[in-house]
Amino acid sequence: LPFVFAFWLIRPKINNANEIADILRQLRDHNLENLDDLVSTQSEVSPAFCRKYYREHLFFDFGEREKAGLREFHHHCLLNKIDVAPDLQLNLV
Fold it and tell me: Which residues does 69 contact at the CB level (< 8 Å), separation at least 6?
């Protein structure tokens, strides 16, 4: 299963959560379409390395496999008594 390192969260009480989520998705899509411009600004590592890393090692979707991976991680946190919420709720917008 994939491991989810980070994702955007919007509090349930936010009225325009769908609008915010759409803006974040548009920003993601724009940045991926302009990846060459973004990686050309990196001075510490080569643009070729950055391009390969972003295109082959990072995934910007949160589908069923990613949800299953997050649930599995949550389950292991509970088993090992790591302080997490006992019930993991994913309400995607």
Answer: 1, 2, 3, 4
CB–CB of 82/7 below 8 Å?
A: no
- CA dist., res. 38 & res. 51, Å (int): 9
Higher pLDDT, 65 or 30: 30
- How many domains, in total, are found in the chain? 2
pLDDT band for position 43 (cuts 50, 70, 90): confident
The terminus-to-terminus CA distance of the chain in angstroms comes to 22
In this structure, the answer to whether residues 51 and 69 fall within a common structural domain is no
- Taking a C-beta distance cutoff of 8 angstroms, is the pair 71, 85 a contact? no
What number is the average pLDDT over the span 76-80? 91
- Biggest CA–CA distance in the chain, Å, is 44
Distance CA 28, CA 77 (A): 30
Q: Which two tokens stand for residue 52?
A: 């390969």
